[in-house]
Here is the input.
Amino acid sequence: TTLFYRAEAEIDKLAEDYVANVKNLASEQRVQHLQKIENAYTKCKEYSDDKVQLAMQIYERSVHIAQTSFI
Here is the structure.
């Protein structure tokens, strides 16, 4: 969870920096900055997908334990 929030905070910071400085950046610098934002977003999405996968595994395991406990 902490990694997700760090990645999310990184996206926010990069986006704020981009908006604040976009007028002063050269075209290539804009592209580089946007790529950093995209990479941070990808990382955040991966963490989010991992969280969903873990939640599904915990749910499936809980159901399995509950079913075997009542037999």
Observations:
- The mean pLDDT is 91.
- The radius of gyration is 20 Å.
- The first helix runs from residue 2 to 21.
